[in-house]
Amino acid sequence: xxxxxxxSSGLFLGWSLGANDAAxxxxxxxxxxxxxxxxxxxxxxxxxxxxAVVGGAGTxxxxxxxxxxxxxxxxxxxxxAAALTVTVMTRLSLPVSTSQAIVxxxxxxxxxxxxxxxxxxxTRIVGTWLLCPLLAAxxxxxxxxxxxxxxxxxxxxxxxxxxxxxxxxxxxxxFGAYSLGANNIANVMGVFVxxxxxxxxxxxxxxxxxxxxxxxxxxxxxxxxxxxxxxxKVMATVGTSLLRLTPQMALVVVLAQSLVLFMFSSQSLxxxxxxxxxxxxxxxxxSSSQAVIGAVLGLGLLRGGRGIRFxxxxxxxxxxxxxxxxxxxxxxxxxxxxxxxxxxxxxRDLSYVLDAPVRSHLVAQGLTDEELSGLSDGSWSxxxxxxxxxxxxxxxxxxxxxxxxxxxxxxxxxxAPRELARELxxxxxxxxxxxxxxxxxxxxxRHDWELLExxxxxxxxxxxxxxxxxxxxxxxxxxxxxxxxxFRSAEPPARTPRRPGGA
Length: 503
Description:
Blueprint lengths: L1 H19 L3 H8 L5 H19 L1 H10 L5 H20 L6 H16 L5 H36 L3 H32 L11 E3 L3 E3 L1 H20 L1 H10 L5 H17 L3 H9 L12 H15 L7 H31 L10 E4 L1 H9 L4 H4 L5 E3 L2 H11 L4 H11 E2 L2 E2 L2 H8 L6 H9 L4 E2 L2 H11 L11 H17 L17
Antiparallel strand pairs: 1-2, 3-4, 3-5, 6-7
Helix pairs in contact: 1-5, 1-8, 1-9, 2-3, 2-10, 2-11, 3-8, 3-9, 4-7, 4-8, 5-6, 5-14, 6-14, 7-11, 7-13, 8-9, 8-11, 11-13, 17-18
């Protein structure tokens, strides 16, 4: 019951996303009266759940780089802050970004707990807030030109054109809902993945459903509930308030935002592009609202800007700016009351230790003894405290300081029999990788890199330095992350006594 209570904020956020962002998949189609709301909601719900369960892992990893919320209480607070923010904006009929809300909430958690914010990950995510609507606008213009050319060449009767448009809206909308579930489930359940409370389930010996996939399933169902119960009003805002859409324009908008969300969430597409030496978009959760608004705006500008309601556009843009700031503030206040009033653990009580093994690991990773010589061995209570000491006493840049902080984090990983049996039964690991895990049974580690180095030493299949193609590298990285997550002990290690003057 306690787990369900903590997950309730994530389910609330999923409901909010369904009420706000997921509705945008069919908002233009419903607004142009090509599809009834009930049918649109059903299709959107089914395919959003499928996308969440099947394809939601990629964007969740990127969001986790921004801030790894490592306690259920912290996850609860972050999701609740984002959900409250989105709900308030939804009450104002503004199609805001759930992605921005959860990013703001994670930043609030980082601020409260003294955790570092990965500025590189933050820059990538914020960059997509600008890239997403621009890419959607360009895609919409291209699709509109292709559709116009095609319909002119076919010279269809108006009735046939109408039937084809309606059928295409259903197909493209289903694809858009799948892409939305795959891309945006990270917003709903991403903060719970590092502390996933469910064991893997093996269904009839045929299919294994991981704890993360179970989280995604619950989040997808919450999204579906939000679509059915509270999305009609936002559909009207997206579908009619910014620009009056014809049925063909509605089809273009749905297709454009579907393609954009898919490009930002598909691990297979990323692996294929990298395998052929092509640039790939970052796998980050982006806003379907921003994609739809960008697509609608692109079509409006294609018509010379006629019909665009710039006042509505300004209100939407104001919501995008306000959302992350408001979510960060709500998260900080919520965390304060949970910890200080109710005694809820909102972050693991870790220390950050700089000693001989950590220094040796960092040197092996490319840093030098001279670069670390300005800071003597010791222990610090937060990431921010160690980072401040590194900044004051060494010449390391921000990226190098993050590497030191990550290596110094002292936690506890145990290859206990129960967790080992569960992981080996998941079917995730190959024979050589599984045998390496068995060889480490019963061992305990204090740093995640110690576990990963032990696995790499036990079998080349775990060694990231062995030459592989892009797809195999991505698969290995997913397995390394899974192993670190699976064997992390529920009980963090006892703190190392801090040196005098350590933060």
